[in-house]
Amino acid sequence: MGAGDHARNGTEHHERRLRFAVLGPVRAWRGDQPLNLGSPQQKALLAALLLRGGQTATAEELIDAIWGEEPPEQAKAALRTYASRIRKALGPDASLLVSESGGYALRTGPEAPLDLETAQETAQRAEKAAGAGDRAQARELYTEALAHWDGEPLARIPGPYAEHQRVRLEEWRLGLLEVRLDLDLQVGGHAEAVSELTALTAAHPLRERFRELLMLALYRSGRQAEALAVYADTRRLLAEELGVDPRPELSELQQRILEADDDLTYQADEPATAGRTAVTRPAQLPATVADFTGRASFVAELGDQLAQADGTVMAVSAVAGIGGVGKTTLAIHVAHAAADRFPDGQLYVDLQGAGSSPADPEAVLGSFLRALGVADSAIPSGVHDRAALFRSLLAGRRVLALLDNARDAAQVRPLLPGTAGCAALVTSRMRMVDLAGAHLVDLDVMSPDEALALFTRIVGEERVLSERDAAMDVVAACGFLPLAIRIAAARLSARRTWTVSVLAAKLADERRRLDELQAGDQAVKATFELGYGQLDPEQARAFRLLGLAEGPDISLEAAAALLDRSPEDAEDLLESLVDTSLLESAAPRRYRFHDLVRLFARACAERDEQPPSECDAALERLVDFYLATARHVFAADHPGDRTVAHLGPPRQEGLAFPGQEKALEWLFAEGECLMSAVRQSADRGLLRPAADLLVATKDLADSGIHSLRYERAAGAVRDAAERAGDNRAGARARIMLTHAYALGGRFPEAQEEALRAMELGRLADDPVSTSYAPNDLGIISTYLGRYHEAEKHLEQAIEAFRADSNRPSEASALCNLSRVHIALGLHDSAIELAKRGVTIYEEMDSTLRMANARYSLGCALSQAGRVTEGLRDLMIARQIFHDSRQSLWEGVTHYRIAEAHLLDGDAARAASHAEQAIALRVIGGEWRRGTVLVVLGKALSQLGQFGRARACLTEASTIFDSLDAPEAAEVRDLLTLVPDR
Question: What's the whole-model pTM score?
């Protein structure tokens, strides 16, 4: 028999393998084919044998298990009949059921696995992983074990034995859930856990451990009032139902929450060993250079400072110096040397402090939290909450944070670990005298001997020894700046025909470098001038023009467009610049400048580019490329939408994509570069391409990730268009800004922008703004409760879209009008409008837009009392939004699902989905958050959790009062209906 025969036989054996399940209905399969196991009593016999793990059960034991104290007269005969039928059902595996000692046994083993035994083995592995401190692995394994449950264990199986086992297995499942949820909280997954715990406390109201975990999860999510309300609800419930007080652990947690105990912000009930072990051990340090030279005193000084992290305070060292002096190289070298002292990980970030757009501490903290294993949905918004969670996660651990290229102390403070055992190493061009407790190190240029040693290590000892004086002239001309020395040495190394004297002579020509090499930015410019002067004309042009782009990096394709070269030629140019160290390879086919090199490149473009208009032409080509590609993305994501037909005519082909998924991947990957291009275009007067790029990338505003960046870019175009008197660009920028404001719940501002967009659009005869503006005004009026006004606006929008033959946008307006009719109580009309939207999107084969139609139809059906149908459409919409990374829309759909469950009387599911909406955040900003809290409060009140319900409704009332929203009065009325006990 050949190897192929063996493989085929192995596959066939696996496909025929018998397997059993009891963690749900009692079932058996051979491969994928279910077996007919007969009557409930016959299944009861099979279950009783399966749960004995191969041990023999006597006939009497089995009779008692199936019938209890009232067996039939012919019980033994029935037992034999059941056993015979089970053997027949097992077919070729009938021998597994054996008769012995007047009873029966089912000998399964690995060849016929039982789901319960598999779950037990997985849970044991999870327990071992947790004991070893590997909480990430433990969480995965507990989740895997719990996944074996498929409803109620031994469902519909009669007899006292099955009933006893059901109780035991359910208790075990709940215990596993408690452990897994505890692990979730230990690693910062509190926001995700709240939804699940809310549902569990509703289903198991007297199970205090779930209440305790819910209190902690709420507290860590910044919802202290709700956390305390859970305790009050629990105390009342226990007194009413059992006549007892909460257990001591619950009372202690309440007291610690009242006292704002700092320890609660990380792992209150976690074993000490696990607390010192990071869920994810980040190792983010960039590679150290192999030819690191000199700096011995600084290495020793910084190493001694980092060693102080062994003591009772966090060690902070701040290295300052001019650009190119080697701060980053030194810091990375020291960090690698000290890495063993920080076994729980090393974090790294380039804070881009020397550029025009320094990194936002809130975004940096989000990146750090993800690196530490925190799920996106568990990351709070706001720099203060993120900093608090960051410090909490690092408490009890030993982590080093390298904060490179900081702008100032204010940028750094939120990023400091803040606990003994951790350390931060900071580099900056500024001396951080206002960074409390930091050990300051001023890094000067290298000594002549160190500079010569570095030059020698790069160029090679043979070439330097015979020309030592010339080599010293070279490093002196470099101002002993390490980066300048590296550039000069790299050029010499690449030109084997040059001698050191040739390079020294070139550097001696002051026309080839700036006079001031030893102070401030001039020194940095002179350093880069050395490398720039050695470039051939084509390289130099590429260097200059690449520096014009504002984004954090640039793709090969975008760079090719900017340079007006083929991608192949552009790649050769860019890689040659990487070889000179003037450009960095950020990732395959992506490039970036060091921030100071970018400034120098721009200065060169302003000074050297001929004709000067080529700078503007290069940026126009870049924007044209982005716009052409964004048009393809828009077309893939909005099939049939005529909006792109009204954008400026493409002058480039742009990138094409095989499908929607790849198109969206490009859009979100390039989001920051696209918005940088929009702002830069506005600054340079390229207003219409900038406005059109906003229109084509509208999906970025809906993502939640790029929403704020999109809003700022739209504002920049609006302001520039206003100054230039460009009505069309102004109208389009304003309508996109309307969309961004509405997403954030800033409805008065959104309305103002939409009205102005309508006015400008009419003056410019612009079909985009004159159709989008009434649609957005209808949405805004709906939010503001002005439904008849909304109806008029949306009817106008539908007419405008039809006139433009823009069927997908017509469908969108129909769905918006459906939601207005829901509010007006016109349920039949609302359903019909939403169905018309669904039909159009089906004809257009528009997946993402279909989610909006399903969302509207689900809302209409639910409000009409057809909740089951409505939930089906809402769940379809939620999945599409999730797959398309539209997190804000996914969140608002969870809110609508919660509303539907509340209408259907399922308060537990309503509360769970409302919690998921809060965790994801929703379209509509604080106003929508208030509406979600109202639904959550109603659901909790129905579940008898009155204290927490009052806390949610009180917070909603505060939100609506601050917004002067009409919902405030309704919420105050609701509060009077919630028992105050």
Answer: 0.63
